[in-house]
Amino acid sequence: MRIAFHVPRASHLKGGFSGDRVQVPSLIAGLRERGHEVKIVSRVNVRNFWRGQIPVSRLVTEAISIRKEMKKFSPDAWLVYGPSTKNPDLFGWWQHPKRYVLWHTEPGGGKSMPKRWRRFFKLAHRHSLARADQVAAHHPGSADGLRAFVAPERLHLFPPAIKIWDCIPSREESRQRLGLSQEAPVVLCVSRFTLDDHERQRPGKTEMVLDLMATLVSLPSDAVLVLVGDGPGRRYLEEEVAKHEPEGRVRLVGHVEDTRWYYAACDLFAYPYRVDLPFVAILEAQSCGRPVVTMGTRSAELIVDSGRTGLLAKDLDEFQAHMATLTRDRTLCESMGRAGREYIQGFHSMQTRVKQIEGMLYGRT
User: Fold this and answer.
1) Does residue 140 sit in the same domain as residue 217?
2) Average pLDDT of 265-289?
3) CA 50, CA 121: separation in Å to the nearest integer?
4) Is cis: bond before 232, omega within 30 of 0?
5) 140 and 24, same structural domain?
6) CA 102 to CA 230: how far, in whole Å?
7) Which of 49, 186, 276, 312 is the most buried (most CB within 10 A)?
8) For residues 216 and 250, is the Cβ–Cβ distance under 8 A?
9) Same domain? 16 vs 158
């Protein structure tokens, strides 16, 4: 199949270590591995237009160029990743492609946009939603919002997926490499240390990590918390880490390119974030054979087999209790970890997700 692949927020095409920057390159690679011819439609970042960073003439020129290129390519389907009011598909729906599928779709947004462009972009996104043969949301909140514009038979819910690592180091080798005790319980958190998002009214992940540090009082005295990541909240975490005794009980590692060693070294992965979104790190931990403890959001229920591959908490008190249980029972951790790897391979691998996208593109869904 010839697939025209469009990412309105084109910066996701560059790749990276979190979220959409992981999903987009993996999805393209997965489709190509399945034998599909995938052509990137545009590398213009649509949000740069309403931010005033590119002129109207540039957008018009891009639309004309894409139209000519697509006539030559003659795609069997047009697949759009991450469309929303702030990042709508401005180039595909009006060309009436044979199959038109929107993936990881958001219903609205756009409050931060200048008012003079907000109406136009909202209209473009609504036309795109109306034209789509199939629409896939990646978390329950998005699916809820899309039901006002998309008929039930065209709307689907697929959380993010990951490419399964072929080789995962042993716990012993990983701990030796990272300078961690072979006997002590090791808790891992991999995250970007963000601050509060006032536009979306979300708490920052830095606050989550501070909540996680507070659980140490209920854990075994030799337990170690390892924090992998970076971001604007790091300075606040460094101040808090310095307060914990003995020295080294909380290790703030910073940014790491190959996180496999850290997943392999830990006994469990902890993520007490209360925002209802599916997080790639939770999938990665399970794929590496490590149980997870996180909050019991609707998104978490989609990506954790509760009680089998991880434990979901209704509040921070229950989260702390789950942490205390698992850090004292390595046998339980290992059992849940084995189940986690099987679970991710069966339901949340990129190979599985690509086959589901194929079904939508072929009209089999």
Assistant:
1) no
2) 97
3) 9
4) no
5) yes
6) 31
7) 186
8) yes
9) yes
> Based on C-alpha coordinates, what's the Rg of the chain?
22
Q: Is 299 left (phi over 0), alpha (psi -120 to 50) or beta?
A: alpha
User: Considering the chain, what is the average pLDDT of its residues?
Assistant: 94
Owner of token pair 């310095």: 242
Per-residue pLDDT, averaged over 50-69, amounts to 93
Phi, psi of 148 (to 5 degrees): -75, -20
The count of domains in the chain is 2
Write out the two tokens for 347.
């339901």
Q: What backbone phi and psi angles, to 5 degrees, belong to 210? A: -65, -40
3-state secondary structure of 241: helix
Supply the pLDDT for residue 314.
97
Pairing relationship of beta strands 224-228 and 268-271 according to DSSP bridges: unpaired
The enclosing domain of 56 has a CATH number of 3.40.50.2000
Distances (CA, A) of 301 to 146, 262, 290, 307: 20, 24, 17, 11
Parent domain of 53: 2-162+349-362
**180 plus 320 within the same structural domain:** yes
161 contact partners, CB below 8 Å, separation of at least 6: 23, 26, 283, 348, 349, 350, 352, 353
Phi, psi of 38 (to 5 degrees): -110, 125
Which two structure tokens, joined as six digits, stand for 332? 């339980």
Q: DSSP letter at 306?
A: B
Strand partners of residue 228: 190, 254
Place of tokens 């909202």: 122
Same domain, 224 and 274: yes
Specify whether the CB–CB gap between 6 and 42 falls below 8 A: yes
**At 195, phi and psi to the nearest 5?**
-105, 180
Q: For residues 91 and 97, what is the distance between their CA atoms, to the nearest angstrom?
A: 11
Which tens digits make up the pLDDT trace of 204-226? 899 999 999 999 999 999 999 99
Q: Is the pLDDT of residue 201 over 60?
A: no
The verdict on 180 and 299 lying in the same domain is yes
Residues 137 and 183 in one domain: no
